[in-house]
Amino acid sequence: MAPQPLRIAMIGTRGVPATYGGFETAVEEVGRRLAARGHTVTVYCRSRKGDPRPERYAGMQLVYFPAARRRSLETLSHTGLSVAHVLRHRGHDVALVFNAANSVFLPLLRLRQVPTATHVDGLEWRRGKWGPAGKKYYRSAESMAVRWSDALIADAKGIATYYIDEFGATTEQIAYGAPILRHSQMTRLEELGCEPRAYHLVVARFEPENHVDLAIEGYLRSSATHPLVVVGSTPYPAEYDTRVRELAARSDRVRLIGGVWDQDLLDVLYANSLTYVHGHSVGGTNPSLLRAMGAAAPVVAYDVSFNRDVLGPAGLLFRDADGLAAHLVAAEANSEEFAARGQVLQQRAASEYTWDAVAEQYEQLSLKLANGESQRGRFDGRRRSASQWD
Fold first, then answer.
1. What's the pTM value of the predicted model, to 2 decimals?
2. Domain-embedded: residue 390
3. Which residues form the Glycosyltransferase subfamily 4-like N-terminal domain (predicted)?
4. Which residue among 87, 97, 173, 332 has its CA within the 20 to 30 Å range from the CA of 41?
């Protein structure tokens, strides 16, 4: 028997098609599957003058609102307009709200009796781009999410553990999916002047918690001869961006190629890399990491619980430049061994991180919320006095 069709609002991201990050990828992959199962899915998208504004995409209805062009206000300004639209038009059975920062709007949805699940993401207050006020707000927003959400969604075991340790609050643990990429699909590598299995790869925004500088420093300390290809940039001018570029300028073997928005070309880079160096440290289940695994890329990741949980025993870890340098040298000396590690990671991605299973979990959660199940009121949002996370 098919589940009852629901009217589901997806709020708090840049929207679809996904061109930016993990939230957007999740909205696109989950939303299109929920729509295919007969649910009415409305995605709230950010708009800029001159951008195309299709009314539908992959079965989802799209609604557009602008966002303030300031980092501190971008998310909140757009979500505020999106929530106002939900309140005016009513008719939604469930709202899926992405980013704990948006929890300030949850009481408004509650007034319209729209049950909400909040995807809380990673430890945003640890990100280097936020000053003291931003960090304080994000910590407050986590408390509001715990107190006012009907359900909390964590995309990694480490995030679920954090909410238990900090608030005594339970979460629905729903990871992301990993696209499985086959080498038979891979062409175009020559466009970037790279040779298969003859380069190390970094894909990340230039932000301190992503450790792009550490990746370059580790490479420079090594005796590796294959180039280090760095895909990424920063959306905002920052001292960190300058540091990354100054480090890269020390060797012509470090190639900063900027952002690559052509997903097919990016997949080529993942699937043909000798190693993929993943420095992300504060998020949960990272989509770039899953994409690398799905492409059978041998992964060398920064040693934090989120990355350990996703990779399992086939992943390699580093905590400092010297540790990374040793892995890069080993990869060049033992390329077949590293390729075998990549194959194990791909098998892990194919068995444990599928978008069909993720969408099923979102559907089941939405049905429970629409039928009145809620944890709101069970947790007061107060932090416990002793914590390992501060």
1. 0.88
2. no
3. 21-174
4. 173
